[in-house]
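Homework help board

Subject: predicted structure for assignment chain

Our instructor gave us this sequence and asked us to write out the predicted structure in token form, then describe one feature. I got the tokens but I'm not sure how to describe them. Can anyone check?
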Amino acid sequence: MYGTFKALASLLAVAVGVQAQESSVTRSFYGMAYSPDGALLPQCGADQASVTRDMGKLAQLTPRIRLYGADCNQTELVLEGIKQAGNVDLSVWLGIFIDGNDTVYERQLNAVTTAIQKYGTEHIAGITVGNEFLLLSYGDGGSATDPKGVAARTTLLNYIQKTNQTLKAMKLDKPIPLGTADAGSAVTKELCAGADYVMANVHPWFGHVPVEQSAGWTWQFFQDFDVNVCAQAPNKPVMYIAETGWPTASDNASITTNGPSKASVQGLQTFMDSFVCQANKNNTNYFFFELKDEEWKKKYGGVEPYWGLYDFNMKYKDGLKVPNCPVTSPTGRAVGPASSSPGGRNAQGGAKKSAAPSSANPVASTFVLALIATGLFAIL
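My token output:
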């Protein structure tokens, strides 16, 4: 019996350690990139329970999230998830994915506007039209200023203008900023002039930078190729880093190292420790990449699936600790739930469910059940 108790005590120590590690997270990220699991055509396997869970966890880490697209009902899933999690304090930059096909754009624009009509504008901070559309249009060896790049920019800006006209016709209770996200090297003054904000992907891993130098490299690249470029545009758009982070693993051992540094949990920790608090201090707007690993990206191989704080199964990665430098919410609210009913047009009252870490009670309950099952509860 003593051996059984000792084994259970060891299990509790491990469980409590994992719980303490996850519950030690602070709201230190300015923003975070997010895609619901399964929000991909044609399967569209995203489910509300998982998205609601993710909204609760995200609200503990950041007051801001950005989405990439609107297919598979993901806009409504996210806004409903925020409500079900207790109307948690999350400002969302919605996404409209484009590939140059008008049908794809119209489908996603319709999904976004339908969601706005249903949930109102309370949690919406912007709509991002396109994600690396320019980069994918001009391809390897091309540039944003070659004929393909210029043609893609024209298409993109036309979509932004059409989105703007659609929103104006809706007569919303507040203006919604419109922008785009692309590679940090794809930003031009002409692009900046057509958007309220510009998001730039800046990944030190792909810059072949030692992880110890990655934070400084990220900030400098963003300043030189994005902030300074858009400062020349007459409208002076708001600037964001759309993605930045560090991979923790690779499917291919030959590309676990990209230059001088490895894909590892320690690498992610080093990057977070050197980037997050400093970026918060110098008022850099960024969306950290990302909440969890994305299993569907295994088809690309290498490091692509492994950028999350959580693994595929939403287990917090062992050894990670979020830096302690809490950010200020743009709404001035606490994490949640809200003390009053959600605002915005057509908003509906959400469940008053706490956004506290969901792992706290299950750990204790599981241990008590184990004690009962082994007859040790009476001894303790």
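Reply (TA_rk): Your tokens look well-formed. For the description, you could write something like this. Strands lie at 32-33, 64-66, 91-96, 124-131, 178-183, 197-201, 238-244, 286-288. That's the kind of observation they're looking for.
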